[in-house]
Specification:
The protein has four helices and three strands. By secondary structure, it is of the alpha+beta class. It has one domain. Strand 1 and strand 2 form a beta hairpin. The protein is flat.
């Protein structure tokens, strides 16, 4: 039984090391050019560095993930934080509203970048 506990601890240790190294690598990819590329085209085909960042952000756990909520269809959007629990309502991140879905997508991207750099 003790062997299983040690194995699980090692697995967790390896996962944390991998995550830490991956975050360090992704931080190096954040440049003004990448931010501008995303602002110009938040959806569609992207460069490899931007695609790596987006894949990392999209595979995060559901709890604490940012999402876009439509306030008025085609006119007003806001950013919310998902709870990760079934039936629980998302919480508004702040009172900012965005005129277009693309603006909201870019704001979510910037928020993820901020979280990455702060970690």
């Amino acid at each position: 039984m003790n062997i299983t506990v040690q194995t699980q601890d090692r697995d967790e240790l390896c996962r944390r090391r991998f995550e830490s190294r991956q975050r360090d690598f992704l931080k190096m990819l954040v440049t003004p050019a990448i931010i501008e590329e995303h602002r110009r085209s938040p959806l569609g085909q992207h460069s490899e560095p931007l695609e790596r960042l987006l894949i990392y952000f999209n595979r995060r756990p559901l709890a604490g993930r940012y999402a876009i909520m439509t306030v008025v269809p085609f006119r007003s959007y806001r950013i919310v934080v998902l709870s990760g629990e079934r039936g629980a309502r998302p919480k508004a991140l702040d009172d900012m509203k965005f005129r277009t879905h693309a603006e909201a997508l870019h704001a979510v991207f910037l928020r993820y970048l901020q979280d990455l750099v702060e970690s």
